[in-house]
């Protein structure tokens, strides 16, 4: 009787957490920098390509298992979407690889701060390639976000010795990798928009993991750029932790966007930067600088300008790329803004395997959460998007 009572209490507590957007969002925002800390704890001994392969191998096996159990058909997608599925997989693979490179070379908080640029890059790409309206507020948001990145990374040609940060090859490479991750994430987002609701979320996730395996295995077999390394017991545990925390973080992030208004979820995503600085200080002894704090806050302001500009009927409130009705989520924001906000999730991770799934309240879950990491929809039993 005692065990039954404890089990019932635990089940009830789990239900309370799962039904709270704030609770699941808070845990998700911690999971991503924690996963980054695990990457950093490998201290560069395990090649980035090997980390990506190990993570995607676990998720690929999980995808096939869930696909067989739920009888998703066609599991590998329709032939007409093959090009976009491959594009989504390739961009996702490079987004995750460059994100891990950035995390391994930069302070955790700085990497998380630059990672918040993703919704701005997605909005810029959608304006450039799809003709989606950007508007004055969106353009201002992009400019503000870039200014924030400049303050955060403190390049010596602008700040000189007053930047307070030694600018070596590692920091320059890490900064370039973090920005590249945001660019590849835009490719993920736009390809998923083209796929739309014609493929199951599980299919899009499987495309990502298959591409990662295909792109990672040959270089490792050829020992390029570095040979594969047999992980120690500790390193193997870290690799498993990276896969599990990425999976759990994206699942919880997806749930938080289902339960919360986009504005609240966007503001909450900023806590990933805070967690990144805390973990960086506690685990790696990284110094928290004033310019890092100011730069991160400026980036947040730019992201909010870019993604929230249509609230209350502002310009840029439509989505040319997603014609499906209804055009807005439950909080009144245009669907494109939901999508761009979700891209702010780090770690890209990359990010939900894509597409939108229907919810009882009609809220749209963002496509661009795929940019951060891609596994969350595996537990959604292959439901069609929207």
UniProtKB/TrEMBL annotation:
Primary location: membrane
Coiled coil stretches, renumbered: none
Subcellular location: Membrane
InterPro entries registered for this protein in UniProt: EamA_dom, EmrE-like
Domain EamA: 20-153, 174-307
Biased composition (Low complexity): 318-332
Pfam families in alphabetical order: EamA
Gene Ontology cellular component terms for the protein in this record: membrane
Topology relative to the membrane: Multi-pass membrane protein
Chain spans, region Disordered: 315-386
Transmembrane parts of this sequence: 16-39, 120-153, 173-192, 204-224, 236-253, 265-284, 290-308
Bias (Gly residues) ranges: 346-355
Similarity comment: Belongs to the drug/metabolite transporter (DMT) superfamily. Plant drug/metabolite exporter (P-DME) (TC 2.A.7.4) family.
Protein name per Swiss-Prot or TrEMBL: EamA domain-containing protein
């Amino acid at each position: 009787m005692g065990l039954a009572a404890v089990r019932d209490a635990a089940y009830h507590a789990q239900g309370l957490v799962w039904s709270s957007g704030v609770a699941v969002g808070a845990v998700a925002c911690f999971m991503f920098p924690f996963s980054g800390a695990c990457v950093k704890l490998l201290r560069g001994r395990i090649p980035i390509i090997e980390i990506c392969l190990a993570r995607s191998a676990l998720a690929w096996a999980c995808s096939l298992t869930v696909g067989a159990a739920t009888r998703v058909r066609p599991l590998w997608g329709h032939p007409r979407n093959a090009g976009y599925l491959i594009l989504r997989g390739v961009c996702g693979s490079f987004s995750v690889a460059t994100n891990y490179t950035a995390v391994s070379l930069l302070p955790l908080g700085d990497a998380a701060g630059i990672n918040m640029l993703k919704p701005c890059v997605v909005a810029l790409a959608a304006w450039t390639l799809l003709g989606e309206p950007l508007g004055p507020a969106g353009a201002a948001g992009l400019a503000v976000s870039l200014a924030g990145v400049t303050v955060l990374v403190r390049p010596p040609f602008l700040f000189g010795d007053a930047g307070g940060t030694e600018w070596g090859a590692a920091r320059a490479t890490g900064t370039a990798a973090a920005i590249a991750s945001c660019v590849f994430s835009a490719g993920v987002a736009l390809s998923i928009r083209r796929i739309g609701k014609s493929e199951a979320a599980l299919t899009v996730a499987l495309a990502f993991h298959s591409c990662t395996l295909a792109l990672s295995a040959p270089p490792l077999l050829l020992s390029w750029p570095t040979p594969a390394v047999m992980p120690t017991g500790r390193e193997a545990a870290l690799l498993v932790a990276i896969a599990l925390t990425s999976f759990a973080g994206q699942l919880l992030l997806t749930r938080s966007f289902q339960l919360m208004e986009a504005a609240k979820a966007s503001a909450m995503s900023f806590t990933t930067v805070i967690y990144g600085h805390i973990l960086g200080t506690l685990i790696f002894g990284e110094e928290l600088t004033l310019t890092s704090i100011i730069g991160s806050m400026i980036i947040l302001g730019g992201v909010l300008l870019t993604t929230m500009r249509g609230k209350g009927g502002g310009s840029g409130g439509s989505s040319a790329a997603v014609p499906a009705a209804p055009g807005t989520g439950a909080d009144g924001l245009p669907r494109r803004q939901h999508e761009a906000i979700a891209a702010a999730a780090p770690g890209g991770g990359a990010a939900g395997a894509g597409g939108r799934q229907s919810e009882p309240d009609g809220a749209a879950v963002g496509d661009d959460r795929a940019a951060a990491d891609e596994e969350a929809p595996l537990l959604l039993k292959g439901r069609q998007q929207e």
